Here is the input.
Amino acid sequence: MIVSERKSWEEILSFLEEEKNIFLLVCGGCSEACKTGGPEGLREAKDRLREAGKKVTAAVIIDFVCNKVLLGMRLNRYIDELKSSDSILVVSCGIGVQAVANMVDIPVQPADNTIHMGGFPGVWPGEERCLQCGDCQLADTGGICPYADCPKFLVNGACGGSDKGKCETDPEKDCVWTLIYERLKNIGKLENLRKIRPPRDYNLMLAPAERKKSMFWALETVEEKPKEEVSVSSE
Amino acid sequence: MKLKDLFEKGKFVVTSEIGPPKGTNIEPMLEEADLLKDKADAINVTENQSSVMRLGSMAVCRLLKERGFEPVFQITCRDRNRLALQSDLISASVLGIENVLCLTGDHVVLGDHPQTKSVFDLDSIHLLKVARGLGNGYDMVGNKLDGVPDLCLGAVANPGADPLEPQIIKMEAKVEVGAEFFQTQAVYEVKKFEDFMKAAGHIKVPIMVGIVLLKSAGMARFMNANVAGVFVPDKFIKIMAEASKEDRPRKSIEIAASLIKEMKGMCQGVHIMSLGWDRYVPSVLEAAELI
Here is the structure.
């Protein structure tokens, strides 16, 4: 899940100072779970916009704004409302806002701050994160990712700031390298800790152009380009 | 002079430490350092200690060298990527610096610029390995150097680490990649240090026990609450709490000297971190019968 929280309404309205007609687009996925989106989020945002003297041209919930097919289909139903809107206020994580911007040539404004992504973990609800490092070390680390959880991105064990299993950056935070040590001990693989892992190759974090061409990367290659000058673009 | 050579001669090596100022006012620091002349074998110069921005360690190391001291350049992975780390190791060498202490570095949230982007491109093990590689004539991707830095490499360890086992495993790795001596985090518990030295018995490079001068009971309690692996026993806190302000340095010297006397038979050197009380270090060394 991608974790987001509401920006202050003072900040949100500052984005909309010059604008009268606002299209409200609310995510019903992670944002709903974070209590910024969903029906409640929609109601609150609509009320706030109206109180601020804005006209809400449409208020739409989409389950997972990041679902491109769904987003395109739903937006297509609101072409008229979109055309009459000065701005789209998106209640969603940063991905959702960018997804809408990618499809519609109307200014989009974020209502939320995305405070934690740490690697999108699919629909897994736990604390595990994947940073898409391109060089998965989980086999050596007992299935616990040090890259995603160590504030110093250490790859060769805990630093001197680790104390009784806690991190020097936050006494509430578990030291991931102590967790890895305990896990490896439990599964009889402590020798893994003795392997010296080389420095990371940060180039691996950049997706190769070849990968970007594949249909799994971008569905737009198989989508039709919709009509109208409010282009719901396919590229 | 490399610390390695002193250990090889069988000397019980004494190092101390100075922290550069936040600014260009170097005179007080150099005056304090002068008190250690001919008393400490080498002087560590901290680098943006506790992630607080200060005058750089390399520049101060060079100044100490010019004044006839043997500096230990502390270099951390926090503020530089792998290009800058390698470049600075070479730079240190051409400035006459022969000893380098390779550290991961505190996290930036502990310092005075918590908003900054920390680097940590390499970790302490990588840094040691890279420094060793430079000494062998190659950079970390295998390019041949035109002139080779000649550096003695130190590393750190924490005898109070809990759990201790991964700490020992990390020390093994540090030795494997090039560490030639260890300086430890502050120790106040003799028994714990003895246990640590037993656990590290197979590690065949010299270990220098870390001593931090206690300035007050408050400082002791602060360290107990905030410094990983450091525990000041109640008996020392009591002594410091009961001492008058004027008497605290004397008590502090006594405590440090007694700790050194008890532990010097277990290890190969002592590293005294005075945290601004450099002027009392000679007295500690005298009381510990090291000079």
Residues 146-200 of chain A form one domain. Confidence is low (pLDDT under 50) at residues 220-224 of chain A. The longest strand of chain A covers residues 55-62. Chain A is about 30% helix and 15% strand.
